[in-house]
């Protein structure tokens, strides 16, 4: 599942492949954009905002537009050289193809694909909290937003992109393990909420620029996480079997010994 660092990396790949180039063709395979032709438009930049990807363009009349996409659980962008075989996903999952003289960008299984004036981007991403990997990162504001829902579980609150943008299920589980906090702890009972927020930012930033996500410091297969994806395996700290359970609509991994349950009473 793409998380903030994955989307940041994807934006960088697209920026390297497309920025400054004029599009020689486009092919949208979604009903709302099926007749849209971006031929002759120039790609200004590719940027991420939390889990949203923003491809900013200039039309021939100098109007500025943004092609917005959300990767959700299974979306992806791939950049290919002209003539290279598209091997990212099955062809029926392709939602958009953008061509320049030097590259071809293919978007697979994209969600919320929309073309909007750049000045109206806030209508799509303005509700998001501070971006953990963005220039607007503001830990004080992130803590304020989290603290505004003291009865919500910290596991659910970290995933709420309105609080802070970029944390997904992997980082939620790993941050809470490293902080020794049960995912079911109410936000109001979390010891040192600013430290939890700071750790989330550090973990995402550490994986920025690489595709292997590691919270342990190891990039070896099977050694990249403490609890995530390790159900029934021994905790790396205490040896207790890691548990897996649903929290809200997402699965959660945690160690029942290292992360004892707490309440706000």
What are its keywords?
265 residues; alpha+beta; four-stranded antiparallel sheet; 6 helices; 10 strands; 23% helix; 22% strand; elongated
Textual characterization of the structure:
The protein is elongated, with a radius of gyration of 20 Å. The longest helix has 15 residues, at 4-18. The chain is α+β, with helices and mostly antiparallel strands. The chain is 23% helix and 22% strand. Helix 5 (169-179) packs across helix 6 (193-207). The protein is built from 6 helices and 10 strands, in the order H-E-E-E-E-E-E-E-E-H-H-H-H-H-E-E. It has helices at residues 4-18, 122-125, 139-147, 154-159, 169-179, 193-207, and strands spanning 25-28, 42-49, 52-58, 64-70, 76-80, 94-99, 104-108, 111-117, 243-247, 250-254. Strands 1-6-7-5 form a 4-stranded antiparallel beta sheet, covered by helices on one side. It has a 4-stranded antiparallel beta sheet with strand order 2-3-4-8. Strands 9-10 form a two-stranded antiparallel ribbon.
In a nutshell, what does this entry contain?
The chain is α+β, with helices and mostly antiparallel strands.
Taken from the alpha-carbon principal axes, the silhouette is: elongated
Secondary-structure-based class equals alpha+beta
The Cα radius of gyration reads: 20 Å
- What order do the helices and strands follow? HEEEEEEEEHHHHHEE
Quote the average pLDDT: 94
Strand fraction equals 15-25%
What is the count of DSSP helices, taking H or I runs of 4+ residues? 6
Helical percent range?
10-25%
Distance from first to last alpha carbon: 35 Å
């Amino acid at each position: 599942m793409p998380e903030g660092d994955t989307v940041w990396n994807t934006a960088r790949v697209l920026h390297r492949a497309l920025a400054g180039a004029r599009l020689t063709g486009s092919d949208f395979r979604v009903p709302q954009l099926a007749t849209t032709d971006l031929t002759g438009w120039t790609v200004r930049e590719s940027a991420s905002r939390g889990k949203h990807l923003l491809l900013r363009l200039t039309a021939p009349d100098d109007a500025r537009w943004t092609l917005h996409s959300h990767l959700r659980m299974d979306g992806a962008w791939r950049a290919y050289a002209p003539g290279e075989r598209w091997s990212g996903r099955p062809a029926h999952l392709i939602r958009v193809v953008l061509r320049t003289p030097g590259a071809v960008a293919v978007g697979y299984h994209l969600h919320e694909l929309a073309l909007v004036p750049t000045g109206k981007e806030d209508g799509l991403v303005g509700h998001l909290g501070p971006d953990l990997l963005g220039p607007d990162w503001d830990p004080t504001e992130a803590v304020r937003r989290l603290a505004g829902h003291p009865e919500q579980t910290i596991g659910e609150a970290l995933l709420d992109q309105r609080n802070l943008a970029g944390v997904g299920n992997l980082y939620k589980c790993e941050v809470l393990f490293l902080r020794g906090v049960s995912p079911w702890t109410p936000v109001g009972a979390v010891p040192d909420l600013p430290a939890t927020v700071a750790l989330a930012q550090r973990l995402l930033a550490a994986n920025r620029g690489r595709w292997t996500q590691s919270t342990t410091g190891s990039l070896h297969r099977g050694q990249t996480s403490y609890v995530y994806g390790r159900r029934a395996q021994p905790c790396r700290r205490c040896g207790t079997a890691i548990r897996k359970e649903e929290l809200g609509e997402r699965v959660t991994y945690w160690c029942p010994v290292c992360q004892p349950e707490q309440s706000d009473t």
